[in-house]
Amino acid sequence: MPKLNLTQSFVNKSKVEEGITCVDYYDERIPGLLMKVLPSGRKTYYIRYKDHRKVSAQRKTGNAVILTLSDARALARRKLAEIAMGSDPFLLVQRNLSPTLELFATRDYIPYVKTYKKSWEMDISRISNHLLPYFGAMRMSDIEKRDVVQLINDQLPCYKPGSINRVIILLRYMFNLAIKWEVEGVTKNPTGGIPLLKENNHVERFLSSEEAKALLITIKNSKNPMLQHIISMLILTGARKREVLDAKWEDFDMERKIWRIPNTKAGKARTVPLSDTASLLLVKLRKKKRCAFAFANPATLKPYSSVYYSWHTARKEAGLSDVRVHDLRHSFASFLVNAGRSLYEVQTLLGHTQIKTTQRYAHLSTTSLRSASNEISLAVPELT
């Protein structure tokens, strides 16, 4: 950790480089005084010392934006003098000083992940839709293991094990950061020792033509006026949900019938050819839309952070409760393969960088397999 003679100018200008969780600057003038800087710009003075049990302890003394360096040093001198005399001025109940999960998320976690994580919007969605309804108003120090187990049990009837696991992994990461950043009162991670749910990642769900028709009929009655357009675009292009939700009009070349997706999972831009049906859908939408985003929320004119609730209602009404939004991408590939398109074509349309990723879609219908086997007879007529 950097050790230097702190100055007020340095305190004012100090910041954390992108991708670093925090930096501790130790003051040479007052041994034990340090300043912690977070990616959010938050700066806090701490005193580090050994308590009556000879165990290293670190306690917050003040906000470095409010407290001047000279005041922080004076306070540190007084506190360290009391400690040297055998009295610990920090033996207070720290538990009630911890922030609520909502405060930590908005003040510390989200500003940090925005600096390096491409999928930070997904984190916000999981925090808003899964964590805050349960723990938002609770102090982080009050969240117990039994509370996390209750969250898992409550979500099991509604969500896939993989989706629940991602919420628990996010909560675990948030607590680990809070402990690492020494957030007041947060000393334990309530997710510790809780195993992740078993996922069956080998079972892919593909819609049949009849199921796709039933789904499209049902979503027309959705209370979300954009759901039918979003789902149709997903089925017609095989794009990922976030790619459709974030699509801008400037990304579409309607004359050439091309959609350029600037940010993909692979971190590279890719081009998706638009079918006549997909082009017609966009033309109709364009006449109604007056904002930069093609599939924007009409109420905010911004992309949806999530369409889960309207999607969940629609799929239940269509009798397809087990179908996820991402399964529409699987179904797109399935329709192509069963129509006789090559895996190379499917790979290109889906934007896979490796053919082995596409090979999981190489399940052909019985009709397609029979048709393929008949090619031998056509190639070698003498066999008949």
Q: Give the name of the CATH architecture of the largest domain.
A: Orthogonal Bundle
Calculate the mean pLDDT score and round it: 84
Number of domains: 3
* Low-confidence runs of at least 5 consecutive residues: none
Share of residues in helices: 40-55%
Distance between the termini: 81 Å
Describe the structure.
- The chain is of the alpha+beta class.
- It folds into 3 domains: 90 residues, Double Stranded RNA Binding Domain, CATH 3.30.160; 80 residues; 120 residues, hpI Integrase, Chain A, CATH 1.10.443.10.
- Helices cover 44% and strands 10% of the residues.
- The protein contains 15 helices and 8 strands.
- The strands form 2 sheets. A 5-stranded mixed sheet has the order 1-2-3-4-5, covered by helices on one side. The protein has a 3-stranded antiparallel sheet with strand order 6-7-8, with no helix packed on it.
- Strand 4 and strand 5 form a beta hairpin.
- Helix 4 crosses helix 6, helix 8 packs antiparallel against helix 10 and helix 8 crosses helix 12.
- The radius of gyration is 28 Å and the shape is elongated.
- The N and C termini lie far apart (81 Å).
